[in-house]
Amino acid sequence: DSVRACLDAGVRRQHIIAMQGPFSAELNIALIRQYGIDCLVTKRTGRAGGFYEKIEAARECGIWVVVVENSKMTEMK
């Protein structure tokens, strides 16, 4: 589970936003600004998971993005 992985890596619970998407770029921008996010960590979920909207929002807000690859997906390429 992604939240457990974040906690195990030392990320504090108040620094984790775990919501069921996908969401529009506009909502992602609002979340980034509301919480003062300066780095977005996301899985590469493709169009169905709202990945491109997250990238668009991060670019608009000028923040870093860390993309976690799915090893099963990478192996299939």
From TrEMBL:
One of its GO terms (biological process) is cobalamin biosynthetic process. Pfam families: CbiJ. It comes from hydrothermal vent metagenome. PANTHER family: COBALT-PRECORRIN-6A REDUCTASE. Keywords: Cobalamin biosynthesis, Oxidoreductase. Coiled coil: none annotated. Pathway: Cofactor biosynthesis; adenosylcobalamin biosynthesis. One of its GO terms (molecular function) is precorrin-6A reductase activity. This is Uncharacterized protein.
